[in-house]
Amino acid sequence: MASDPNIHLLESRLRGATLVLSQLGLYNGAKWAAEALSGLKPVITDPAANSDSEDYEDEDVDESSSSETPDDPQLIALQFLSPKEKDRLTLAKTYYDCKEFDRAAHVLKRAQSGMGKFLRLYSLYLSGEKKKEEEMEGVLGQNDSGTTPNTNTPLILKELQAEFEHKKPKDVNPMLHYLHGLILLKQKCTDAGIVALTQSLKLYPYNWSCWSELLSALNKLDEAHSVLDDISEHLADFPAKTMVKIARVVVNQEFFQQFEELYRQLDELLTIFPSFAFLKTQKALISYHALEYQDAENLFDEILVQDPLRLDDLDTYSNILYVMEKKSKLSYLAQLACAIDKFRPETCCIIANYYSLKFEHEKAIMYYRRALTLNRNCLSAWTLMGHEFVELKNSHAAIESYRRAVDTNNKDFKAWYGLGQAYEVLDMHVYSLYYYQRACSLKPLDKRIWQALGDCYQKLEKLKDAVKCYKRALQLSDQGDVVIHYKLALLYEELNDIPKVYEHMKACYSEEIMAGVTCDETSRARLWLAKYEMEERNWSNAYTYAVDLNHGTSQELEEARSIAREARNRLNI
């Protein structure tokens, strides 16, 4: 493969990010950068090496010729720390790795470098989070409000403010901006948190931990693209622009977007990162949201072949297998995940899905609780546990689970939709309407949500609004939907618009003839059409509708026979 300076530069940046983020204890960001680096297409720096590329890959490279770029500011800061500062940082990092966070912070109390200050304050933050978790009760326990504060955040914010007062934003270490944004988001100061995270990414765009926090905080698609455009304007080189492109794909995936340009962008990134499982997962999630389950399953199979011990996002894979009712494959996936790491939240969710498919809802809830004990921010566990409580007809517990899910990520369509369903069961239709509207704002092209909105408006006796919703649901149906046609007919009957009633009842009848499937709605539509034609004295049509009606209650069948007899008698006169 020919040498590509841009790819070579991207490789260097990712390698530098892996080192920097590892040194600062941002392990998820470091793992992401290392996986991206591993998934990058091969770069050959010496054209003469073309003849023996395998040897090139295996040979040891001298440190002086390493591709860590000298103009990476964070790598420079790390390499040129004073010996004393470097020793302190190394000692603190060993304590940090042993989860002795207070001890790590104490070692760095006199740190002068931006990195030293970050590791100190981040250690304090994690110490507070650890103590908070220890004080909290079990998942959905009596005192599990989900709002227990981190007692160290006031001190951290005070020190950060002191740092910001004496420097311009661009002169502050980007990791401090990241920590500032992280804490602001925890305190529900979303706008200020987004500003801080954006500033961090403008200065250092290779911290995926920062990208993840930023993307989770963005609630509207246009706002998300505006923020990404702002970041992109401050970044010049190819590696930084590539990070923005990856973030843009994730944004579109999280907001359930489906358009050709998205697939083109993703394919373009996959040519740069042909073996990057994260991007393949994004492609699988896009297929999953589009209800293309077979394509999503094939992509996850490919990811598992490439990296058979990878648990990241396998809970979504289990959701796909659940929907496709592939019990044996889901069972195998649960056993595989359990063999890899039985104490990962993803593993618990996979096992819970397996029990749910077997209708063992109590066991499923037990494993979702276990997943949440391991990680309170495990979004899919909150949402799916809500579904299990719905199955057990425990609406109040379901509502609390869904509420926690939207607190964790308010872009979770299933949680908003679940809240709407739970309140509908409780006959609280005003609440139900609000949550359905929130779900609709996330997936406006989903027929189910428009139908649910129509049902809600109908129960609130807002018939014209209900008609609009059912019509929209009908537009989004691939083929005519008998149930929606029948509901529209009943609404128009209440509005005394008989021509429209006839139109939709006739549509129900036509669907029955075309599809050859009879159901309650088509039978009732036949009966209504037969009565209507009798009133209009169209005996032949009335007989046609009534004579073949053989599905429904005994009363409906008897009424149809009566109409058929009378119509036949009229025709014989």
Automatic annotation (TrEMBL):
Q: Where is the composition biased (Acidic residues)?
A: 52-71
Superkingdom per UniProt? Eukaryota
Q: Which GO terms describe its biological process?
A: anaphase-promoting complex-dependent catabolic process; cell division; positive regulation of mitotic metaphase/anaphase transition; protein ubiquitination
TPR repeats: from-to residues: 379-412, 413-446, 447-480
List UniProt keywords, sorted A-Z.
Cell cycle, Cell division, Mitosis, Repeat, TPR repeat, Ubl conjugation pathway
Annotated stretches, region: Disordered: 44-74
Entry keyword annotation includes Ubl conjugation: no
Cellular component (GO) terms are: anaphase-promoting complex
The record's InterPro entries line, in alphabetical order, gives: APC8, TPR-like_helical_dom_sf, TPR_rpt
Domain Cdc23 as annotated: residue spans: 10-284
Protein name per the record:
CYFA0S16e00144g1_1
On whether Repeat is a keyword of this UniProt record, the answer is yes
Upper taxonomic lineage: Eukaryota, Fungi, Dikarya, Ascomycota, Saccharomycotina
